[in-house]
Specification:
The structure is a single chain. With 136 residues, this protein is α+β, with helices and mostly antiparallel strands. Helix content is 49%, strand content 21%. A 5-stranded antiparallel sheet has the order 1-2-3-4-5, with helices on one face. The longest helix has 39 residues.
């Protein structure tokens, strides 16, 4: 079985517009999830556990919010999988942070992209993380 794809900096740079678009959609999903979570919490504060009983007047609204949350979570997961299909590893969605395998000076590294960067500006060893980023 082949290993992960290894990218050049230029190949990752070419993917940045797609990453920006994906994380723009992720922002919308996350905002929607936040609103839905507030609504669910409000109903649970008002009714307590009784809101989960079918006889409760707000039970239907709660179920609708929970179903919308589940759908939004599935959409977020699908976007994360799309990042993976591009060859990246989504390390964070807030802030967006994606690592791509690369080679630097004969060693396997991660090219590290975060939102706002128009090209890959940093890298780090595969056994290290964001705090160990170094300029390209």
């Amino acid at each position: 079985m082949p290993g992960p794809r290894v990218f050049t900096v230029e190949e990752v740079d070419a993917l940045i517009p797609k990453l920006e678009a994906l994380f723009g959609r992720m922002d919308t999903i996350r905002k929607n999830l936040k609103v839905l979570s507030i609504r669910v919490n409000a109903l649970e504060l008002i009714w307590g556990a009784k809101v989960h009983e079918k006889e409760n007047p707000d039970h239907g609204e709660l179920q609708q919010h929970l179903a919308e949350m589940k759908l939004a979570e599935e959409q977020a997961e699908a976007l994360t999988k799309r990042v993976a299909r591009l060859g990246g590893q989504a390390k964070s969605v807030d802030p967006p942070l994606v690592d791509f395998y690369g080679v630097r000076e004969g060693r396997l590294v991660f090219w590290c992209w975060t939102r706002g960067e128009t090209h890959v500006e940093h890298w780090h060893h595969v056994d290290q993380g964001f705090s160990n980023r170094q300029p390209v």
